[in-house]
Amino acid sequence: MSATGAESGCRVDHTVNRWTGGYTAQIKVVNLGPSLSGWRLTWTYTGDQQVTSAWNATVTQTGGSVVAAAAGFNRALATGAAAEFGLQGTWRSTDPAPVDFALNGTPCGDGGTVPPTTPPPTTPPPTTPPSGADCAGAVICSDFEDQTGPAPSGAWQFTAPDCQGTGTASVDTAVAHSGSRSLRIDGEAGYCNHAFVASTADLSRTGPVIHVRMWVRHTTALPSAHVTFVSLPDASQGGRSLRVGGQNGALQWNRESDDATLPAQSPAGVALSRPLPTGSWQCLRFAIDTTAPGLDTWLGDEPVPGLHADGVPTQDIDQQWLSRTTPPRPTALRLGWESYGTGDDTLWFDDVTVGSAPVAC
Ligand code: CA
Q1: 177 CA distance to ligand 1 middle (Å)
Q2: For the whole model, what pTM was predicted?
């Protein structure tokens, strides 16, 4: 039997209530295949829709690709049974019906309330293949040399997860750590002035420790106000982000769901972090444990003591961070700029790797 028909493995009823700039969607998926003990429904937005919240499923979005993972109570899906969940999102210029619904990878028909659409090719843009020993086994390994135009494309897609202002992202051929290309972010001050470029790579099975290495160069010292330049959608926070940025002039981690910071923003805590030097390429590395409390950060080859979390609460460092006991489960990587007040900056990223094994600077 062909796997291309709408009745091959699942059926989706997708009901949208939209208004200018926003929408809610109620999604019902019927399992027409074998019983499932857990499920993930995936689809693609071809417009600029962006999911902001969801209920009865954990929904994460990278570029136009969306993953809805079952909630604990609706994981089991027998043959013929249905699961329902909903979400809310934003859109700016276009919001065509989603396409390429698939249940655990098996294609469904497109949503029941919309006319049939010819789906675009389902093959995702290729992740840059490993190009050296550095990258063996890496899920993301990008020197941005495969970027062909001024706008990020292919394995890197522009996104503004919450809201967008005047910040921009581009491929810069004048500044690079390696080769002749890097990713450039012109980040602007002001609340909700967000501009990111997301890798299309799925990190949800990377680990148990996720190792991230990037070279970053920036222009303006980290401000007193809170800013973010690396954002990892985190399934353990319902898709909200684990964020790397700065506050009080020094690097910090921040957890979107409860706004916890690492280190604590006491003067003693801030002193245990480090500023991000301006005007030169810096090697920034993270190790994120997805199974236990554990987070480590290196600037160059030096561990940053204030950016270290472990199982033992330490005043001024990780006492507040450890108030949440569920380890993070990052699913994607976004590089960019998110300002919540003052602070603008121009940044470049190059030679980015993410995988289950450490990579040297
Ligand atoms: Ca490069």
Answers
A1: 6
A2: 0.65
Ligand 1 center from residue 131 Cα (angstroms): 12
Burial class (CB in 10 A: 0-12, 13-18, 19+), 169: buried
Q: Cα-flanking dihedrals φ and ψ of residue 133, to 5°?
A: -60, -35
Centroid of ligand 1 to alpha carbon of 149 (angstroms)? 14
C-alpha of residue 144 to centroid of ligand 1, in Å: 5
Nearest to 166 by CA among 352, 357, 346, 11: 346
Residues with CB under 5 A from ligand 1 (ion): 143-144, 176, 178-179, 181, 350
* Spacing, Cα 179 to ligand 1 middle (Å): 5
- Cα of 140 to ligand 1 centre, how many Å? 14
Q: Cα(348) to centroid of ligand 1, in Å? A: 10
In the chain, the domains with their CATH numbers are 10-112 (2.60.40.290), 140-355 (2.60.120.200)
pLDDT tens track of the chain, all 361 residues? 333 333 468 999 888 877 677 777 889 999 998 889 899 999 999 999 988 777 678 888 989 999 999 988 788 999 999 998 878 788 888 888 999 999 998 888 755 433 333 334 334 333 333 344 468 789 999 999 999 999 999 999 999 887 888 899 999 999 999 999 999 999 998 877 889 999 999 999 999 999 999 999 999 999 999 999 999 999 999 999 999 999 999 999 999 999 999 999 999 999 999 999 999 999 999 999 999 999 999 999 999 999 999 989 999 999 999 999 999 999 999 999 998 878 899 999 999 999 999 999 9
Cα 350 to ligand 1 centroid, rounded to whole Å? 5
Q: What is the C-alpha to C-alpha distance for residues 222 and 277, in angstroms, rounded to an integer?
A: 9
Going from the C-alpha of 45 to that of each of 49, 61, 100, 160, 190, the distances in angstroms are: 6, 10, 9, 14, 28
Alpha helices in 157-227 (DSSP H): none
